[in-house]
Known about the structure:
Blueprint: H1 11-21, H2 26-59, H3 64-113, H4 116-122, H5 124-166, H6 168-215, H7 217-222, H8 226-279, H9 284-325, E1 340-350, E2 356-366, E3 370-375, H10 381-389, E4 396-400, E5 405-409, E6 417-418, H11 419-424, H12 432-441, H13 445-450, E7 458-459, H14 468-482, E8 486-490, H15 498-512, E9 516-520, H16 524-528, E10 532-537, E11 540-545, H17 547-553, H18 556-568
Parallel strand pairs: 3-9, 3-10, 5-8, 8-9
Antiparallel strand pairs: 1-2, 1-4, 6-7, 10-11
Helix pairs in contact: 1-9, 2-3, 2-5, 2-9, 3-5, 3-9, 4-5, 5-6, 5-9, 6-8, 6-9, 8-9, 12-14, 14-15, 17-18
Amino acid sequence: xxxxxxxxxxxxxxxxxxxxxxxxxxxxxxxxxxxxxxxxxxxxxxxxxxxxxxxxxxxxxxxxxxxxxxxxxxxxxxxxxxxxxxxxxxxxxxxxxxxxxxxxxxxxxxxxxxxxxxxxxxxxxxxxxxxxxxxxxxxxxxxxxxxxxxxxxxxxxxxxxxxxxxxxxxxxxxxxxxxxxxxxxxxxxxxxxxxxxxxxxxxxxxxxxxxxxxxxxxxxxxxxxxxxxxxxxxxxxxxxxxxxxxxxxxxxxxxxxxxxxxxxxxxxxxxxxxxxxxxxxxxxxxxxxxxxxxxxxxxxxxxxxxxxxxxxxxxxxxxxxxxxxxxxxxxxxxxxxxxxxxxxxxxxxxxxxxxxxxxxxxxxxxxxxxxxxxxxxxxxxxxxxxxxxxxxxxxxxxxxxxxxxxxxxxxxxxxxxxxxxxxxxxxxxxxxxxxxxxxxxxxxxxxxxxxxxxxxxxxxxxxxxxxxxxxxxxxxxxxxxxxxxxxxxxxxxxxxxxxxxxxxxxxxxxxxxxxxxxxxxxxxxxxxxxxxxxxxxxxxxxxxxxxxxxxxxxxxxxxxxxxxxxxxxxxxxxxx
Length: 576
């Protein structure tokens, strides 16, 4: 695992987290254990009474009453055993699936709060794989494992104990063969986990290739990279197939070792039975009981050993899920005084091992102040916004910001669902009146009038299409409903054309009223309306002041403003 990869929990961490999640279900798990032991004990009655019947027949003391009694005992024990097993599985299924549901919810909740830089460095495919492939692997394995783990484990313990109590020489003979199973298990535990980890890692790599091809579709088509991306996905898919074949080979080798253990177990009991009966130390009935118990025992032993294959695969996925679900998320450093909402001290940042994008940034933003950041493309404006928002941690220096911080970028997403659903994402408890008020404040009342079903109109994929300007108004309405202490607009209205720019500027102004705002300005008219303007060049702050102060200073901002004004004159291009 690379330093950038999302963590994978070890066995101790997984056990500790599962134990924590079992709170509230431990009495049910105790009932599962009690029922499992009782049903396994009931199933042990059959071999014992059949052995007694054999001895009675051999001694000539069996009659019709003996047969009927033993038959009745067999029926009752079978019914009790089946009922106990069924109840055990039902209780276990409810408990295990409830615990698994809690883990899935924790995984999703933690995944949504992971810092963006952590996900980007690990690769979004890794997180998607853990949230889909690994969850599916654990959920699919549960039905098969629950029955085996909750019944065969009790069957093995009770059968071995009963055999030792009734016919201990046979138990001793069986114990001599147990090292074969122990060696098979030891071999598998050294081989299987690595194989399944490699299989899951290959799945993550395949998911990453697919996600990158989908997200970069425009680039792939624009540069004619379709065939190259196809080969990359194909190579990743064949890597998954190769790892899956390797896993199946390990499975077959385990099966061969289990067959050898079964052969040696039956042979050992038969040989010991022959010797004991020949010496008068046992009876045919006793040997029959021992053989029936061993036969009854071998099935669960093989099932459990073979289920370890599935268990290892599920545990590999479970470790990856818990690795994400228990990632500690550092609390943001909040501004401690009431006069400043944002405080940056000597902040520097670079992407990976690349050059510094931000260098020696020291900046204070007063509570309620609206500040604009202006600069050429590549000056570091968006990176500064991301560092202030907590999306990227600084390499050096400190950042303090309000706890409730919201960011709107120019890449606005409209979720598939109703308009109401899109708005209540920011405020789940908002009433329809509050939703309409937010739309009205951002100038989107006309949007509500245009939609056929009002707030109940389905928008996004498969629904009513929204223009770029309407999507931006929707995002600003979400901002109003979320009511953050700090609002960061990273060129949030940059997609607007000339006819819509004024409308969206007024909407952004309304959304920022009464709160601290940081605006990455696309148009200098936005910057001029702010309380203070910061000019960035090559990752550094070179100028700072009000619009009037910067114009009077005649520096970089004054030249940008002059050029922008000239561009707005009739006959000139209106560019930001």
